[in-house]
């Protein structure tokens, strides 16, 4: 249950709490090699990445993939991602930030577009699950926006006021999802988007999660 009147944080997972940039680019390029698409650098990925993800592929190959092509691309990416994520860990400082937020009498949760069945054991394996009221991953097809998932996520959180909620993530879609439910957002530059692409979204942009937490408290005050 949320603390009534207290600020609630909805955390993104990939590229935010979970520092998986190298797994993302490694899996992307492994999938590209299988599909006959030239490899890209992490910097180029961060410049081009967008949601819905098929639009990202359009930027790369000059056209939208068909539904059948997208299903193949998505399956290949996730197969390689499972191999590459093994060497990844939490973003620096995350355990202390999560524990500090809870000890101050505030609440937090995770909403990710990573598959729910994969997300929950991964979070649990880092020993941080008790810090969250709820951990929700994507159910249904991948590649879409987080906005409707955010609606369902907040509805499931008793005592959490969207107006006192701040979404912290690394993608423009996190800010769009926050706006969709009447919440605030702070975007972090350490994940899937470049600072330049995030600064055009119209919400605060920070370089560390510690800054994001400090801003969250101020934004929802």
Automatic annotation (TrEMBL):
The regions listed as transmembrane in this protein's record are none
Q: SUPFAM superfamilies from the entry?
A: HAD-like
Q: Name one Pfam family in it.
A: Hydrolase_like
The name under which this protein is listed is HAD hydrolase-like protein
Please tell me the species this chain comes from.
Streptomyces tauricus
């Amino acid at each position: 249950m949320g603390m009534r009147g207290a600020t609630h944080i909805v955390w993104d997972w990939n590229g935010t709490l979970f520092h998986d940039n190298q797994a993302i680019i490694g899996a992307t390029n492994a999938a590209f090699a299988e599909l006959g698409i030239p490899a890209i650098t992490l910097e180029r990925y961060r410049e081009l990445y967008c949601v819905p993800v098929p639009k990202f592929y359009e930027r790369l190959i000059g056209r939208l993939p068909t539904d059948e092509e997208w299903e193949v691309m998505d399956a290949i990416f996730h197969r390689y991602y499972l191999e590459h994520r093994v060497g990844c860990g939490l973003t620096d400082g995350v355990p202390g930030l999560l524990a500090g937020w809870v000890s101050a009498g505030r609440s937090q949760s995770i909403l990710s577009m990573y598959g729910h069945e994969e997300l929950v054991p991964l979070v649990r394996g880092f020993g941080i699950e008790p810090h969250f009221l709820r951990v929700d991953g994507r159910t249904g097809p991948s590649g879409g926006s987080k906005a409707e998932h955010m609606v369902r996520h907040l509805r499931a959180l008793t005592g959490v006021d969207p107006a006192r909620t701040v979404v912290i993530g690394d993608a423009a879609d996190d800010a769009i999802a926050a706006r969709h439910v009447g919440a605030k957002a702070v975007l972090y530059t350490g994940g899937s988007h470049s600072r330049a692409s995030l600064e055009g979204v119209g919400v605060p942009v920070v370089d560390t999660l510690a800054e994001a937490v400090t801003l969250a408290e101020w934004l929802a005050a």
